[in-house]
Amino acid sequence: xxxxxLLPSATEICFALGLDNELVxxxxxxxxxxxxxxxxxxxxxxxSEHLSSAEIDALVRSQLDETGSIYELxxxxxxxxxxxxxxxxxxxxxxxxxxxxxxxxxxxxxxKPQVINLEPRTLDEVFDSIIQVGRLAGEKNAEEYVLxxxxxxxxxxxxxxxxRKSSMLFLExxxxxxxxxxxxxELIELAGGINTKAYKHFPSRQISWQEVSQANAEIIFIAECxxxxxxxxxxxxxxxxxxxxxxxxxxxxDGSQYFSRPGPRLIESLEILAGVLHQEIRxxxxxxxxxxxxxxxWDTI
Length: 301
Hints:
By secondary structure, this protein is an alpha/beta fold. The chain has helices spanning 8-16, 53-66, 75-81, 99-106, 123-137, 142-159, 184-190, 209-215, 229-242, 266-277, 279-291, and strands spanning 3-5, 23-26, 40-41, 43-45, 71-73, 85-88, 114-117, 166-174, 177-179, 181-182, 193-195, 199-200, 205-206, 219-222, 249-253, 295-297. Strand 8 and strand 9 form a beta hairpin. It is globular and about 60 Å long.
């Protein structure tokens, strides 16, 4: 089987299931594991990484209005790679080439590949999507692999069960502010936290600066979708200046590698949240992420 992944999360799923030899094409954003960088790239973005968060937000809105996507698909490469299976999604038009466009172009390919919509909104649905990919590709160990992920979730959730619960506002974008949605509020609860403004199992949503302050969260956690910590520092100072109250802590995390990708590393995302929420396990849980520059506390930047 020849597989093309149009999602970084699907790429990670394929590698986790041992399907790296079957994976022949990925997106320009597929960068984990490092071996993903050796695969043929069949997409590119119309946005520039040098723009501010506000400028990117404006560009994304205009591109979606005009063309329905901020990504371009290399149709010649798609035909050359002759896929049997294409993994994509309908969940977010900001995250990938639109599903309908992919399906339309796939129907024109000589191999007539199957186009699969991976659209998880909950952690259970993320696990189900891993099993689905395994079944489609004939990988029999997918269910066993998911059981190991579930055990890690349960072990961590049980460890923090009796710790003090702190309130958290998780932002997926800062200019304008977007409160978290889909699986992220669920991860916060599993990590032993209390959500303030959030949209559990629904898309993230823009909120006002007044709502940011009214949330009155003890911890503000920022992980902008698609951005690492270094990139987010461009807007962090402006964000702090807009706050009308002082939270106990502000944390910035890599929103490209964690949280926004509904795949195996949501378990690491859960570990990050647990470490931020609980001093008792912070050193054990956060050390490697801090050392790698993937998580930073604002007052230590």
